[in-house]
Every structure is written in C-alpha cells, then in structure tokens.
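I hope you will forgive my troubling you with a question about protein structure. The record follows directly beneath this note:
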Amino acid sequence: MADYLFGVDIGGTTVKMGLFTMEGELKDKWEIVTRKDGGGELILPDIAESIRQKMAEKSIEREQVKGIGMGVPGPVRDDGTVIKCANLGWGVFNAAEKMSELMEGMLVKVGNDANMAALGEYWQGGGKQYSSMVMVTLGTGVGGGIIINGKMLAGTNGAGGEIGHITVDFDETDVCGCGKRGCLEQFASATGIVRITRKALAESSKPSKLREIELTAKDIFDVAKDGDELALEMVETLGQKLGYALSIVADTVDPEAFVIGGGVSRAGSILTETIGKYYREYVFHACRDTVFELATLGNDAGIYGGAAAVTTK
C-alpha cells in the first residue's frame, strides 16, 4: 500500500517540490535551482536525484511512493508530452515517460502548471468544497485551470484554461506577450493593471495619490481602498474585463465557483466584489449565482496539484 506522493512545480528559476501523504498532508517541501543548460536537459535528472535524496533522508522505500506529479510552464498533452516550454529550453518530448525512466518505472503525471495549481486548490485549497471550479491566477500574467466534476479540462493541446488570452478589448493597440492585442492579461494581471494605470495617468490631469508613488498592483489596490478616484477607476476596469471574460467561461462550462489566486488576489474583497458585480451583469442568468472564492494555498498550489494528479485517473 502506497503511503506517499511527490508534487513538483517546475519554474524558470527554481523547482519547488513537496512530499505528501495520500490524504493530502504536506510533510516536507524544498526547492532546487532550475538548471537550463543544454536546452534544459539537466532539469529532470536533477529532480529525480533530489527526490531520491529525500526518500533516503526520510527512509521511504520505493513501494511506499504512489508516484510523482509535475507541473510545467507550457502546454502538455494527456500522455505527458510537453509542447515546447520556451523558458525551460524544452522542445517537444514526453516528460512523463522520461521522468518515469529516471525513477525506475515510477508512475509520473505531467500537466500545465496553471492546471496543476487549479487541481491543488480543488484538492486541498479554496475549491475543496466544490465538484466543479475554475481557478484564475492573477500574477505577472493571467492563467487558469478548469475542473468539471472532478476532471481537469486540459484540451487537445493542453491549452485548456488559457483564459488570459480571451480578447476583451478589440480596440487595444498594445501587443500582448502572446502576439495578440486586447487580451485579458493586458488588463487583469499585475503588470496589466500597472500598464493601464500608467496610461490613465499620462492621459488625464485628474489628481491622484498614484502620481506620488512608484506603481505596483498592490499600490493601486491600496490607494483604491482609501477612496482615490483614479485608482478606483482602474480597479473597475480590471473587474469589468475579468468579469466579462469569466462570464464567457461560465457560459461554456458552468462551474460552481471561481477561485481567484496569484499575487493580485491579495487585494481581497475589493477585487472579488468588483469582478462579481460585472460578472453578474454579463453572464447567462442560469450561471449568475456562481461563487467567487480566494485561493488559500499560495505558492504551494502547484506542488499540491502535482501530488493530486497522481491520485486521479
């Protein structure tokens, strides 16, 4: 009978790892440097060696481990084939098979990192009480993960949940990192709200405390909470764009809840209430009562999701 799971969240700078019980208790977590030399060929061997060292440290036998789940920053097919991870130097290859070989045939599941974060929140976080939920990650970009009746909706090419690239402004002239214009990510990410605020400050003479500080997403929300008119307008813009995008998602998959995570989510109720207001304005009436929750696992969501992936069929 297996006792343990390993969850792995591969980032461009560090690889986060966690040792879990089968019940979802995090027993230990640690990080290693992501070595991207040689097209990222060292990343999986480094992870395998680190897990073996942890097993030795904890006196864990091979038979006690159910498997390893890994999140990677890129699209992944159901069979574990990675479809290019530019910031790791990876091309197209089956990461699940390669990792399993390095771990003497151990079960390995691989998925997109945003999807894994969603699975983590579903398993042990803000979405734990729901059978269907959509995770929305508001960080440097906007990511997402869709879970319907306990099943991750990854899509044909592993691009399911890329809500950050729903077009929400057809008149936008700035180009998104994906190459399109008018993406949700350009308005609702941490960098996005700073971008639109700088534009608003340049185009308006309206007095604002934002003119006196070095702008971050946190600054904008903090100043908005103090009643600053221009800052409140920026929060409304973010809420309107995100509420609209999530109404499209809800009209398609009809989740019980949206779980909002990422650094921007620390703004709290001013964020969820503003999103919810616009969401209910745009969404089909049958989906109007969808709940908005805040994520609870923080930066550990990815490792929780990796572990959870091993327990799902």
